[in-house]
Amino acid sequence: MKQRFLSCLVAAFVSLAAMAEVKYVFYFIGDGMGVNQINVTETYLAAIKGKIGFEPILMSSLPVVGLVNTYSATNGVTDSAAGGTALACGKKTKNGAIGVLEDLQTPCTSIAVWAQKAGAAVGVATTVAITHATPASFYGHQPSRNMYYELGQDLCRSGFDFFAGCDFHRPNTKEGEPSLREQAKAAGYTILTGGYKEYEKKGRKADKLILLQSDYQNEKLGSDHLPYALDQDKNDLTLEQITRAGINYLMGKQKNGFFFQIEGGMIDYACHRNDIGNAINEVLDFDKAIKVAYEFYQQHPDETIIVISADHETGGLVMGKGPYELHTDLLRFQHKSTDELKWMLGEQYKKAPKKFTWAAVEKVLKEQMGFGAGIQLTDKQQERIQRRWNAIEKAMADNDKVQDRINDLGETTKHILSEVALISWASGGHSNGYVPVYAIGPGTEVFQGRIDNIEIAPAMAKIAGYKAE
């Protein structure tokens, strides 16, 4: 008995010593990423290889695996603001609130602030706007997530070293006040909009850095998000590039290690839209960014932790619609998000309305969604598509709401894609389904089993030696 006690004591001291050496902390948040978002992705990867089962991705292959409860202080189903605040600050709050308690007045600080006070360099990155709910939870304190201008001002005041995403959301919402970009520059931030290549040329020497996508993409996408992984071209800024740039930049600060929060924000967007092929590709894109951090971990295994979780599940995703089978392999024929499909068809109509015919639309559906090329529609599904086209023709004849009718067609295509894959959705909103937590590194075994979302940040802080407040 005495020998067993001594062995446990030695193991505890070894674990504490390892935790004391942790200098590099990665906190990945897959917005909207429930356990079934992971499951369908891995099922899809197996299916395209002709197998029934699953093909593991990196994050779910990490040694520590747990389940996380996500309810907020006021709701059984959380939103991203309350969920983000729980993950960032370790505190439950009211839906819609950012970095404040349920009274909407008392501020709560995040693990990013605790890291900053411990002398670490701090980075906050996302695939959406840097003032959206999840990233804002790490620096902001506002009663409403919709206070984008005020959250932007909180960002400028944070003093964090590195931010990255598409842009500030609604950067000019206060009449007569300087834009948020102007305020960020006044606070000492260098703003780059030329993607990863511009970072390599100009970013490393910046005192504080904000890396954004091109102004062209922000204009096209409403300063709301990066292009979906399905829609990216070689010139687009990606989460993988952001992660690589962030690591390089934060290491260059030569501070007491770093804390780096990275959000895959568009998993949530795709699931809100019930766009299944798009959702799978967003999970895979998120996993690519995690691989960059994992490469870093392999170089610094005793000094690095990687923790991955989510603020909530989105869509109530279920694999199955009655028949005891799945056809997720058919989703390989989806080459664009349904948002991009709507935009493409709308641009075709604007540029050449007389050439916007059923034959032209059918060609796009074949090339981008696989309809008639890999995915064979039933008579009823074909009839639904045809009805949507008939409505577009009528709108063109009346010169009224053509884009709205094109959007209706896009909505029908995504529903058909879920049908053929035998995927079902409960809603276009959030659910209270479990989300996963995956981790690797010294001390991260504390995340095994079932935990609450408010336990994650304080546990990470303890491992890294930050003082939680």
Properties at a glance:
alpha/beta, Alkaline Phosphatase, subunit A, disordered N terminus, 2 domains, 44% helix
Commentary on this structure:
The chain is an alpha/beta fold. It folds into 2 domains: 23-319 and 436-464, Alkaline Phosphatase, subunit A (3-Layer(aba) Sandwich), CATH 3.40.720; 328-421, no CATH class. The protein has helices at 2-20, 35-47, 80-89, 111-117, 133-136, 148-158, 180-186, 195-203, 215-221, 239-252, 266-272, 276-299, 338-351, 358-369, 379-398, 402-421, 456-464; strands at residues 24-30, 64-69, 121-126, 162-165, 189-192, 208-212, 258-264, 304-309, 313-314, 318-319, 423-424, 430-431, 435-440, 449-452. Strands 5-6-4-3-7-1-8-13-2-14 form a 10-stranded mixed sheet, sandwiched between helices. Strands 9-12 form a two-stranded antiparallel sheet. A two-stranded antiparallel sheet has the order 10-11. Strand 5 (189-192), helix 8 and strand 6 form a beta-alpha-beta unit. It is globular.
Summarize the structure.
This protein has 469 residues and is an alpha/beta fold. The chain is built from 17 helices and 14 strands. The model is unreliable at 1-19 (pLDDT under 50).
What are the SSEs and their pairings?
Layout: H1 2-20, E1 24-30, H2 35-47, E2 64-69, H3 80-89, H4 111-117, E3 121-126, H5 133-136, H6 148-158, E4 162-165, H7 180-186, E5 189-192, H8 195-203, E6 208-212, H9 215-221, H10 239-252, E7 258-264, H11 266-272, H12 276-299, E8 304-309, E9 313-314, E10 318-319, H13 338-351, H14 358-369, H15 379-398, H16 402-421, E11 423-424, E12 430-431, E13 435-440, E14 449-452, H17 456-464
Parallel strand pairs: 1-7, 1-8, 2-14, 3-4, 3-7, 4-6, 5-6
Antiparallel strand pairs: 2-13, 8-13, 9-12, 10-11
